[in-house]
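Reviewers of the previous submission asked for a worked example of the structure-prediction workflow described in the proposal, so we include one complete record here. The input consisted solely of the amino acid sequence. No template or homolog information was supplied to the procedure at any stage.
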Amino acid sequence: MRGKKGIALALATAVALALAAGALAVFPSDNVASYAGCLNTNASPGGTFANVAVGETPAKPCGSGQVLVHLSGGDITAVNAGTGLTGGGTNGATTLSLATGQALPQTCSGNQVPKWNGSSWSCGNDNDTTYSNGTGLDLSGANAFSVSPSYRLPQTNCSSGEVAKWNGSSWDCAADENSGGDAYYATDAVLPHGVLSDNVYHIMAFKSLPAGSYTLIARTTWTDQDHYAHLICAIRAFDNVITATSDIVEEHTQDIAFNDEGKYKSSMTLVGVTSLAVPATVDLACKTGDPGIDVFETALLATRVGAVH
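From that input alone, the workflow returned the following C-alpha cells.
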C-alpha cells in the first residue's frame, strides 16, 4: 500500500503528463482555454503545480508555500476592428479586413480612377486629364502651354523707349511714334542791326530732335526804320546739310507795319508739321534784302505727336 508521499508523487506526475499532452496544442486556432493553479514554492516539491483547473480559479485555494498562477495558449485577450476595418475577435485566430466602402476597386482599366457611386468606390474615367488651348496659347503634349508666336512680344534687341509694332507676321521692336507730349523749346540769339540785308537765311533759333512726328511753332519780332521793309522767315528741318528749299517746312513773308506804339514793328508766327525718319535738326531762319532790320524775341517750339495726317 502506498504512503501519502507516493500518492502525491503520482498526482504530480499525472498533472505533468496532462499538461504535456495539452502542450501539443498550446496555440490552437480556436477555443483557446485558460487555466488557474497553485505553484509550489517550497524546496520540495518546489516548481510543481497543484489544484490546476480550467478557468480563472484553481480547484482549491492556494495554501502556504503556494502562489496563484494562470496558464493559457496566448496572451492577447482581444483584437478589435477600428474605423474602416471589420473582423477581429476575443479568442483564437482572428482576421481583419477593410470595411465595405473603404476598399478601392481592383478591376479598373488603365488610367481610370476610383469614383464614389453612392455606396462604394467603383472604376471611372478621369475627366481632368485633357486640356485645350484657348486664344493666344499653344498646347504641346497633354499639359505644356506656351504663348503662340503671333501673340508674343519681343524680348530682346529692343532699345530703351521702343515699343512693340506688328510687322505683318509678328511683333517687333520699333520707335514709339505715339508718345505725344514731348516738347522741345529753343530761344533766339539777338542779331546786330542790319545783319539780314544780304538776303540770305540766318538761323534765329534751332533744336535737335529725335525721330518722330512734330508740330512746329515759331515766332519772331522785328523792327525797321523804313516802312517799306519786308522780312521772310522759314521753319526748316534737315538731318545733315541744309539745302536751298527742300528742307523748308513752312515759309512766310511779311511787310513792316506801323503799330499802335508809333513804331515800325511787327511780329510773325509760323506753324508747320513734319515727320523725321531719323534724328534731325529744326530751326527758324529769316532773311531780307532791306537794310536796317532788327530781329529779336525769336522762339521755336517742337511738340512730338502721334502722327501727322
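The two ends are 145 Å apart (CA to CA). We consider this example representative of the routine output the project will generate in years two and three.
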